[in-house]
TrEMBL record:
UniProt protein name: 4,5-dihydroxyphthalate decarboxylase
Organism of provenance: Sphingomonas kyungheensis
């Protein structure tokens, strides 16, 4: 059977794209799509048989009782999010200063925002209910959420037609959480900087203390297909896992640089020593602590009306 698959391009799916990994009885018709466009097409239109999805949005969908898709314990995107908090340096000196402030987000359901809200609350006492969360496009106006969402009592979310970059420049918001740097960050005339300038050190200290490498995305498959082919999740999970293993081997064993980055072997060795060799491994059991933390954050954020179990994410 041929299944449509909407994925982000990465080395973790390269072996599926070039045919080195094959799935018994399944052909994936893969289309690589930009993240925000892809997530909206999944959440609003259920447009793909197999898709990569924001993990926070998947958690919110499960919490809301949506049954379009089944999650697979496949996490093709992971990232530390300390680099992604940009602040007005003329008024925010320490993370705790963000209590009672206005913080811009691309979308309240964005997974990067879930992680930053969580570490601000856990490590710096920033109560989510004290913050005005302002959602909008970073450099282009976006006036709708990626999926319908009504915040719980006590959580203040305001969507703006203006760009977050413009609001940050004018000082109408105090910070922005974004995987992409706002243009104001590169403007020497605007007092905007990273909350953690030495974010590499901050994230490694956090890793040593928590053991968490944040999950960003999950792979989902259409529920109707799973109900008609009960072994499909196992076949897909095995294929994505094989593609991940090949990607990791490619980085280590190629005799020319896999990516256009000088000094790659030294960086790989440093990362392996600092974080361990199994950082990217898939599977719910291997990632149980990370998933439990995400579910706690989602409950505290109001993304789910009740606490969810890890099992519910993949059932």
């Amino acid at each position: 059977m041929t299944l449509s698959a909407g994925l982000l391009f990465s080395d973790r799916i390269e072996a599926l794209l070039d045919g080195r990994v094959k799935i018994p009885g399944v052909k994936l018709d893969i289309r690589c799509v930009e993240a925000q466009t892809l997530f909206r097409s999944v959440l609003r239109d259920a447009a793909w048989d197999v898709a990569e999805l924001s993990m926070a949005s998947h958690i919110a969908a499960v919490g809301a009782g949506r049954r379009d898709y089944v999650g697979l314990p496949v996490f093709p995107s992971r990232a530390f999010r300390h680099p992604n908090l940009y602040v007005r340096t003329d008024r925010v000196r320490a993370p705790g200063d963000l209590a009672g402030r206005a913080i811009g987000l691309i979308d309240y359901q964005q997974t990067a925002a879930l992680w930053v809200r969580g570490l601000l609350a856990d490590d710096h006492g920033v109560d989510r209910r004290s913050v005005e969360w302002v959602t909008g496009g970073l450099h282009v106006s976006v006036t709708t959420d990626r999926a319908p969402f009504s915040p719980p009592l006590g959580i203040s979310i305001r969507r703006t037609a203006e760009t977050l970059d413009a609001l940050l420049r004018r000082g109408e918001i105090d910070a922005v959480i974004s995987p992409t740097a706002p243009a104001a960050y590169a403007d020497p005339d605007v007092p905007v900087g990273r909350m953690w300038p030495d974010h590499g050190r901050a994230q490694q200290e956090w890793w040593r203390r928590t053991g968490i490498f944040p999950i960003m995305h999950v792979v989902v498959v259409r529920r109707a297909l799973v109900e008609a082919n009960l072994d499909l999740p196992a076949r897909l999970t095995a294929a994505f896992s094989e593609a991940l293993a090949l990607a990791q081997r490619d980085v280590l064993e190629r005799d020319y640089p896999k990516i256009a980055l000088p000094g790659l072997p030294a960086l790989i060795e440093k990362a392996t020593i600092g974080y361990g060799p199994s950082l990217w491994d898939y599977g719910a059991d291997h990632n149980h602590a990370v998933l439990e933390t995400m579910l706690r954050y989602a409950t505290e954020d109001g993304l789910t009306p009740r606490p969810l179990s890890v099992t519910e994410l993949f059932g």
